[in-house]
Amino acid sequence: MALLSHVVGTGVGVDDSEQLMEMRFLAAGYGSSQPPLYTWLAMLAASLVGTSVLALKIVKYGLLAAGLAAYFTAVRRLGYSSRTAAAAMFGLLLFPQIFWEMQHALTHSVAIFCFTSVLLLALVEVQKRRSAIAYALFGLATAAAMLSKYNIVIFLAALLLAALSVRETREAIFDRRFLISVAVAVLTCLPTLYWSLTHLDDLLSHQGGLGVAEGGSVANTAFVGIRRLANAIVNFAGLPAAVFAVAYFLTIRKRTEPLQPVQWPEKLLWRAIVFGLVVLVAVVLAAGITQFRDRWMLPVFIFLPAALAMRFDAMGQRGRKTQATIVFVGAVLAILVLPVSWYMHLKGGDSRGGIVRMDYRSLYDQINADGPVSTVVSSWFWIGNLRLVDSDLIVLDDEIPDFAQSIREPAVLVLTEDREPPSAVFNRIAQAGYVMDTVHRRIAVPERFGDAPRQLTITRLHKKAAR
């Protein structure tokens, strides 16, 4: 996918284009209610291969591969066979949000997938080695997870509670060297914590998407929140749960060997899932949250395939055959989705997905037709694709922190007909001390694969005269 993206040279979707906007400068935070780690990694890749689609794909698939490898290794380090570890790893590929959505969209969710797996492996190493280096690495993995996506707090709480409830891991947590983990995690996250406290508006810019108190009364809000949470859980974990359930009942029906007792690693994972659900429900009820996206469930259910694979391991020969079936199903599903992923990258989808088809070289040339432009402003992330043409270009939308300080003249505003109202970016332009030119220019930007050109409006921006 990374090489195909580089050769074909189409644009990227909304999430990746947002990264293109942000990865031109190093900062402790970038707004949009998201931590900065993914952007840092994108900047590192861009420094090696240039600001390109290839850099973005290297980060995305590198994180996916690292997450799968860490997951597999963690199960092996817990004492289970390669078959069990493979069933756990390929079980992850039964989640639609992982084997499909992460490939053609999403950024920070990819990072949280990777570093929750790495965090599990780090916990296993702490339990086994109990060395200062192991505790330091656990703290570093915790910080990486925290800097990936903020809903990791639920996962951390669940994992810590589960670890404290199991004797084998409780001893490692109560070890005084655990303070090394705490110190490393806090020090690593400190710059972003400070940035967040000094940019609260940017940090909380998407809180409206949580639908807080949307149900009206407290009781109705709680009901709506729990109902929508349940729906998100089913949408996220429904397919892997169904596949594992069918395999489980087939195994039970034909089982001839007695079940082995539950080992502590399996107990740890099941308890982490339960504690995660308890913490999640408590947060929903306490905060009055009513809106959920399926992928937000990832930190709670990422342990599900490993726990189920361990359960099959306890069933003897029949369970091991079922594990092989899970590997086969996950692998086939991953292979079948490849051509569809290629198609989605090349052609995008309808509505917002179609931005990948725009000819950004043509757009860039038309923007600069009246003279070189240093800054392009728009009301939506899609405009970040222009940095694939000119990596030195400053591209802004209304969610970029320090908007006013970032503008460099000559500057233009580019708008297209989309679902993002331009009023927010108009306000940011006015607050920055700029006004729009009275002359607006309409242009037509070609789209690849013979689609009709997209109509855009371009307006020059001027600094207000000092009074």
How does this structure look, described?
With 467 residues, this protein is α/β, with parallel strands linked by helices. It contains 20 helices and 5 strands. Strands 2-1-3-5-4 form a 5-stranded mixed beta sheet, sandwiched between helices. The N and C termini lie far apart (54 Å). The relative contact order is 0.13.
The structural class is alpha/beta
Spatial strand order of the main sheet? 2-1-3-5-4
Q: What's the β-strand tally? A: 5
Q: Biggest β-sheet: count, sense, barrel?
A: 5 strands, mixed
Termini gap: 54 Å
Mean pLDDT: 89
The helix/strand series, from N terminus to C terminus, equals HHHHHHHHHHHHHHHHHHEEHEHEE
Kindly estimate the percentage of residues that lie in beta strands according to DSSP: 5-15%
Question: pLDDT below 50 for ≥5 consecutive residues: which ranges?
Answer: none
Shape: globular
Give Rg in angstroms.
Answer: 24 Å
Helix content: 55-70%
Count of DSSP-assigned helices: 20
What is the structure about, briefly put?
By secondary structure, the protein is an alpha/beta fold.
Question: Topology, pairings included?
Answer:
Blueprint: H1 2-8, H2 14-22, H3 37-49, H4 53-77, H5 82-92, H6 96-104, H7 108-129, H8 132-146, H9 152-165, H10 167-174, H11 178-198, H12 200-203, H13 218-254, H14 264-287, H15 298-301, H16 304-313, H17 317-347, H18 360-367, E1 375-377, E2 394-396, H19 403-406, E3 411-416, H20 423-431, E4 434-445, E5 454-463
Parallel strand pairs: 1-2, 1-3
Antiparallel strand pairs: 3-5, 4-5
Helix pairs in contact: 1-4, 3-4, 4-5, 4-7, 5-16, 5-17, 6-17, 7-8, 8-11, 9-10, 9-14, 13-16, 13-17, 14-16, 16-17
